[in-house]
Fold:
Amino acid sequence: MTAKRTYRIARIGGDGIGPEVVAQASRVAEAAGRVSGFDIVWTDYPFGAGHYLKTGEILPESALDEFASHDALLLGAIGDPAVKPGVLEQGILLKLRFHFDQYVNLRPAKSLPRVPLPVKADSVDIVVVRENTEDFYMNIGGTSGGKNFRIDFEATRKAYDLKGSVSLAFEPAYRAAVQLGIATEAGIRRITEYACSVAKARNEDKVVLASKSNALSWIYGFWEEISKDEAGRHGVELTVANVDALCYHLVRDPGRFGVILTPNMFGDIVSDLLAGIAGGLGTAAGANIGDGLSMFEPVHGSAPDIAKTGKANPVAAILSAALMLRHIGEAQAAEAVEDAVESYLAESEHADLPWEFGGKAPTSEVGKAIAERVKKGRS
Ligand code: NAD
Ligand code: IPM
Ligand code: MN
Structure:
């Protein structure tokens, strides 16, 4: 008899609705494991606002070492109104993405049964492939109130260390801020290659790049040049859309889009837009994928406005767990979870749907209903 498969998953509930939706995603993943014949052993980590305010600790190096020995990381959301914006988001979430060189942020935007779309389209099936380690997310910048403005910076990525300085002289003296965006050829090539592989898996031979070279020619002109060349090598046609016009067309006619490749910052914005278009942030799943530890988290944040009310829709976290199951090699379990979400949405009484869709089912009841459907198989 072969031994039962066991996966070790690190888990950070995080802040606000994070722990609430991660609890349901875990419950559904465990149900899928029971049906498919594997176990999940969770290792819980307390990082987030509560832990930081109590201990002053954000994310210790020792935890990064421990995460590395796991099969994946499941994360809820990070960020709390009691902590200055950026401290935890950069110190935990971005730190994890950069440390593990999770260069792909995969964010599918797929409409679901009976979830109304706010746009004129019968369905939406778009995947955002967001570069996840560079662009304006390098945290290179500074502020100054003086005439001569010099910032020294250092940044580390898996493939390179970056050191440098920027000096500016204002005449007369001005208070000012600067933030630098970086794009490397290797960084653009690897994410473009990934986007091409996503297109091919969908039997498509086109990718749209969200760009803005008309205004930011250095960085996005470079993106266009390199990504077109790389896509060409994979037999994929890459067309460029200015991100402003792209947002317009996404709202007017989302049906004409498939795979959208984006630099980091545009990807952040376009993925929330698409979450809205496809039915709601509570349904939008995400994966941060690299060659080492990958991390799975919904597109949404900690939603402090609805924390502890039962209004949080756990579907996004549950579908993120499905992406995780597929990533660790349990494709059948992933499909069982996705099928269960669809049948739950298609067949439930209106009152048994999440608050986000006008129903009355609290977060835990939604998770329970989906887990039960996973156990039963599709009806
Ligand atoms: P948000 O995504 O938390 O919320 C935006 C809106 O969507 C809110 O009205 C919220 O109630 C609603 N919403 C979000 N998730 C929902 C769900 N599952 N079900 C129903 N409604 C949902 O964005 P925000 O308000 O800008 O950010 C709140 C905090 O989260 C900030 O601290 C921010 O930095 C952080 N944040 C973290 C992540 C992450 O950890 N990946 C992502 C985005 C924002
Ligand atoms: C996301 C979030 C993060 C990002 C923030 C919290 C740093 O908005 O995952 O979309 O900008 O990537
Ligand atoms: Mn975002």
Residues 17, 21, 77-79, 85, 89, 93, 281-282, 297, 300-306, 312-313, 316, 356 surround nicotinamide-adenine-dinucleotide (ligand 1) (CB under 6 Å).
